[in-house]
């Protein structure tokens, strides 16, 4: 029987009215001084008008001037980078038969693992933040689990084809309309590739540009978006599909005793997402979002960062994924490097001034004070933090000083679907849409972190108010969320 202990209630932070007033005045500074500029402009306009009236015009001058203006405008338009639009996306919704409760998971584990690892897995699950609706593929629900190439291929086909079918239905596109295809899956990389599997299934064009990314970890979804973005910059009037998933029916299900390698068994679950990107100007009205920034940070040159997540065999030859105890420290360091680049691009001037003053205060005036953490809530309305686990969300929430509302989508995604690897940020975006919170002009920050060690950020701006979806992964349960997630759920 499942019993619930203490509920976590996020404390409400009272508003800082002085800071709110400061932000308003600084961010609207140019609005307040614009009357002065207008007055000065009017006073200086008379000499210009006098000079204008003194010039004698002829047909050649007029035509030459007009030609120069047209040339400059045309050059500006043609040299401007094409906007990348997110037209729509589709999520994989596993069937009811794939659901695996925590109690059943533990009972299955008892059949294949020694007592000590089972007890450790039980403690992890009780504190993981995962609910009772998460899903495992059929091959991994057998006793004992039967991960093999055939079952992994079958799982990949079910997830990927379901996402593609749903995406084609949503966007009214045909397979031959796709110019670029990018698929990322970290631990399953068959031959022929997953992209070849999709091209064969849908009889796509022979000149399609396809890329299959593997071994890139949970942050690979945004890496794929960045690759597709670069390809769209070079190929006008094109459509790109990015598909992110992780296949669990592989031999990476760990059967040994080492705790650091047992963690992935407890938190990873089935999921997938297919995203349609476009640079067609005709899509600017129907697209949900446009891509504003994509910032990538790679800390692989540091040994501690490189080694914190490793696929390896233990001393007994059991294959698995090792999560090092330094993971949270490494993740925080990678996030810091990433937002150092992102911050100047997105933060309002009021936050930039406070950050510079804090830097001067500490570095030059030698005052012992904590570095100022910018208020990213002034730059974004919505946050999609990779649902890698409760500890990951807690760490990023603390480092960014976000409220419980800001990380609600991440926590609820972890509860309902588990850690779906690189596709988790799309389940979070869908959660926000299903709640009816996505309005025209809203800014979204997606954060992906993963092995390597990598931290990637994507900034999207909402093109139009998004209506609540009538179907999708969240539709049948969205009304029951958000839920209170206990600190511990006894199994």
Automatic annotation (TrEMBL):
GO cellular component terms given for this protein:
membrane
GO molecular function list: fatty acid elongase activity
Q: Which reaction does it catalyse?
A: a very-long-chain acyl-CoA + malonyl-CoA + H(+) = a very-long-chain 3-oxoacyl-CoA + CO2 + CoA
Which Pfam families is this protein grouped with? Answer: ACP_syn_III_C, FAE1_CUT1_RppA
Q: In which pathway does it act?
A: Lipid metabolism; fatty acid biosynthesis
Specify the superkingdom: Eukaryota
Q: Where does this one sit in the cell?
A: Membrane
Which residues does the UniProt record annotate as the domain FAE? 78-363
Q: Which residues form a coiled coil?
A: none
Q: Where in the numbering of this chain does the Beta-ketoacyl-[acyl-carrier-protein] synthase III C-terminal domain appear?
A: 381-461
Task: List the CDD domains hit by this protein, alphabetically.
Answer: CHS_like
Question: What PANTHER family is this protein classified in?
Answer: 3-KETOACYL-COA SYNTHASE
Which named protein is this? 3-ketoacyl-CoA synthase
* Species: Buddleja alternifolia
| Organism classification | Eukaryota, Viridiplantae, Streptophyta, Embryophyta, Tracheophyta
